[in-house]
Amino acid sequence: MRTLFLLTVTALGTFALIACAPATSPPATNQVKVLATTTQVAALAEQVGGNLIELNSILKSGVDAHEYQATPQDVRAAAEAQIIFKNGVGLEKWLDKVIENSGTHAPIIDTSQGVQIRKGDAEEPDGDPHIWQSVPNVIIMLHNIRDELVKVDPANAAAYQANAAAYETKLNALDTYIVQQIATIPPENRKFVSNHDAFGYYVARYGLTFVGSIIPSMDSSFEPSAQELVALVNAIRAQKVKAIFTESSITPTLAQQIAQEAGVKVVDGALYGDSLGAPGSGADTIDGMLKANTDLVVANLK
Questions:
Q1: pLDDT at 29 over 50
Q2: Would 94 disulfide with which of 70, 107, 287, 297, CB 3.0-4.6 Å?
Q3: pTM here?
């Protein structure tokens, strides 16, 4: 059977085996089987569901959603899930194939519903998918997850509502903290350059000026042209940008080259753009990630 599995994956691709396999019933459990697509969505589901849910996340820390290739394990997880939460706004371009091959009947919940979506670009025509970079957006996502868990598991509605309310209080305090911290940066220094366009919601919410990014796209897999890089160097010089911020899920090599050309520093450490931090990093929750990003920005732009 193991040999057949290996041969099938090789010959037919990662989805074929799971798609053709007979359906099996998941083991009985009192916990709701929840599948989240991204680290951000998973972190919110964990805040709401706590020990009432059995949580699985397709993406892990440090993995870029734009470049992800789905696996047979993802198909299996979708087949067994009772509810599936996604980020939406076109971020999970690989998800439809996973759902199709899993045969799942679980509701698929778009946590971006209700968020005011920023305009996208050629690579992200559905809009800017990085909605978790603004606290008000995170609260909308939180409410969407809470409401759907209540529908799936009404017996534990009070617990889901209480968990969500507690985390919303924490998020509101964080929003105030970020506003206050950004206000300590001299206005002429509030100029932001990152690896790719993952921080539009953050910049708009908290009063920074976006100068540009190394990868001039919301999709981190996009490759910049020489002309675009020259234009960015000129903009950094003209606007007297203090620093370029790299991201945890993107190699900093090109950013370092641009910084050297423009005569500015690359910030030691990295912002969390498309992924939360690893467990224990302090940035493995959305509130922890946003605080870590804010502290890094403030420390390097003052």
A1: yes
A2: 70
A3: 0.87
